[in-house]
UniProtKB/TrEMBL annotation:
Name by which UniProt lists this protein: Prephenate/arogenate dehydrogenase family protein
UniProt organism field: Acidiphilium iwatense
Annotated SUPFAM superfamilies: 6-phosphogluconate dehydrogenase C-terminal domain-like, NAD(P)-binding Rossmann-fold domains
Keywords attached to this entry: Oxidoreductase
A Pfam entry, by short name: PDH_C
Claim: Membrane is one of the keywords in the record: no
PANTHER family linked: PREPHENATE DEHYDROGENASE, PREPHENATE DEHYDROGENASE [NADP(+)]
Amino acid sequence: MAEPIFDRLALIGIGLIGSSVARIARAQGDIARFVVANARTEATLARVAELGIADLCEIDPARAVEGADCVMLCAPVGAYAALAAAIGPHLAPGAIVTDVGSTKQSVIRDVGPHLPEGVHFVPGHPMAGTEFSGPDAGFVELFQGRWCLLTPPPGTDTDAVARVQSLWERCGAMVGVMDPAHHDRVVAIVSHLPHLIAFTICGTADDLADETRQEVLQFAASGFRDFTRIAASDPVMWRDVFLNNREALLEMLARFTEDAQAMARAVRWGDAAYIEDKVLRGRKIRQALIDLHQA
Ligand SMILES: NC(=O)c1ccc[n+]([C@@H]2O[C@H](COP(=O)([O-])OP(=O)(O)OC[C@H]3O[C@@H](n4cnc5c(N)ncnc54)[C@H](O)[C@@H]3O)[C@@H](O)[C@H]2O)c1
Ligand SMILES: O=C(O)C(=O)C[C@]1(C(=O)O)C=C[C@@H](O)C=C1
């Protein structure tokens, strides 16, 4: 077995993502010698203890990070500023602070100012997840073959970036380095807008309840069901994502709305070629994605 990358890894927040990292660290032994789990409630920590996926459960984030050479923030991004303020003074000199948040400019804005001199900051975002949350939702295969995007601020210590990269590679992920503003625009279109559309379409269907509720539930085949899977995601996580990637999300939504209006126009005026062309384009994109993941 390879030497563990870190001595002591503190996971601040231990839901789907944090508990997946904890499970992998436990199963493989090559990520950290000792794993500390922190969560907001005693109930979550009691469950983590029952699952046996951390060496120590600590309710106070400031105590959880003491002596850790790697601290990974795994809470909803709206909680980051307060968490960073709480842990900042307790971080060990030379420690690496990283995270898994779905937005990156807001994380750099909210966390960066609280980190003392000599602590390295390597923001990250694993592009993997499910609609489930909490410590029971994690699993060791979650990051296999998926991307993890790192957005280190200019001048970040290269050894710190390399160690975070190794952590994700040992979790089975492929690692890419990206500018945080670019990251936020990319995820706005491939992740945040699809979620916004899923929440909205389920809400619209629900608003039509009197006419259709029975039919929605009874006859929903995989088209609508696929939207409901995404729409079942955690409300706090997604509230925070939308509010912390506001500009990029609104930009992508505006572009989408324009394209949807063009489609509406084609439907209204019977522009069959336009409709067929757009459906064909969707099919090609789906095929390209399948080919990419099989390559
Ligand atoms: N779910 C996904 O698909 C996914 C994928 C990639 C990245 N992310 C990002 O990972 C992070 C965690 O997401 P998750 O899906 O693991 O969420 P989750 O709801 O499963 O777990 C969140 C954890 O954070 C803790 N927490 C919640 N509010 C807190 C607060 N105010 N202060 C301290 N701790 C708090 C909870 O106790 C829990 O342990 C989020 O920032 C999210 O944007 C999620
Ligand atoms: O697969 C899902 O259910 C997800 O929502 C995962 C997903 C995504 O949109 O792809 C969600 C948010 C993340 O920040 C990264 C991944």
